[in-house]
Amino acid sequence: MGIKNNKTKILSKITMIALLTGCIYIGPINEEVYALPNENIVLRASTESGKVAPCDYLNVRSGPSANNGIVGKVYTGDSVEILQKDNNGWFKISKADSVTGWVNGKYITTENKNVNSSERQQVVDLAYKQIGKPYSWGSSGPNSFDCSGLTSYVYKNSVNVKLPRTSSDQSRFGKTVSKGQLEPGDLLFFGSGSNVSHVGVYVGDSKMVHSPSTGQTVRVDNINSGYYSNRLITAKRVL
Q: 222 forms bridges with which residues in the sheet?
């Protein structure tokens, strides 16, 4: 019994060291989010599956860009498990008994298993709780926020997802959705032309919670009227 307990302790220590160093992982992944030393990558537990969208074929690469070597291919309709997501839009996927590697996430249609309305609602609930707090450039809470500081704070403290810090970088994170596909918890990005300069959290009913600008406070605005009605550039789904 003593030997077995010692083995368990050793494995636990190895697992913790592995998570901190990013070198190797031993043991099951818990339903949590870990920010690895490469902060561009957010590792979630296996909560998503997906299918390859229509294409001739999709190259699977050794790293999260087209500059990495090809390690295999997947094809239209193939079912895959999504293991990691890079904030440049690439997904690390695994196809059963076949290949594991990185693909361009825009060619993967996600099918959430465990991450659905409950986690999105947690994001929305925490966003509402920040209403009335002042805008402050460069601030990410808990007492004041700029626009991307608010979204970073809400995601980190509600569902433990680490977003990139700026609105521009956040606009390249997650799955792009159209205005007609919006669900509570999605991120909305605004600006001029293709230049993103503002972000808010969609809360449903054509409304968002956001931290507008200097001298103002976190509030709810309708995205179909007023200043933001014709400035939406893109929307992203993180959950």
A: 207
Angle at 163 between CA 159 and CA 164, to 5 degrees: 170
Closest of 71, 213, 223 to residue 137, by C-alpha: 213
Contact 186, 237 (CB under 8 A): yes
Peptide bond into 142 cis (omega under 30): yes
Q: How far apart are CA 73 and CA 207, in angstroms?
A: 41
**CATH 2.30.30.40 in the chain, residues?**
31-112
| Length of the chain in terms of residues written | 239
Nearest to 177 by CA among 188, 169, 168: 188
Question: What does CATH list as the number for 31-112?
Answer: 2.30.30.40
Tell me the pLDDT tens digit for each residue of 165-215. 999 999 999 889 999 889 999 999 999 999 999 999 999 999 999 999 999
**Residues with catalytic roles:** 147, 198, 210
Q: Cα dihedral sign for 16, 20, 24, 28?
A: positive
Residue type, 51: K
Q: What is the pLDDT of residue 47?
A: 54
Tokens of 84: 């990691």
> Residue 173 and residue 166: Cα distance in Å, rounded?
11
CATH 3.90.1720.10 intervals, the chain: 117-237
Pairing of strands 207-210, 100-104: unpaired
CATH numeric code, 117-237:
3.90.1720.10
The Cα–Cα gap between 205 and 93 comes to 34
Contact assessment for residue 77 and residue 57, using Cβ atoms and an 8 Å cutoff: no
The CA-based diameter of the chain, rounded to the nearest angstrom, is 69
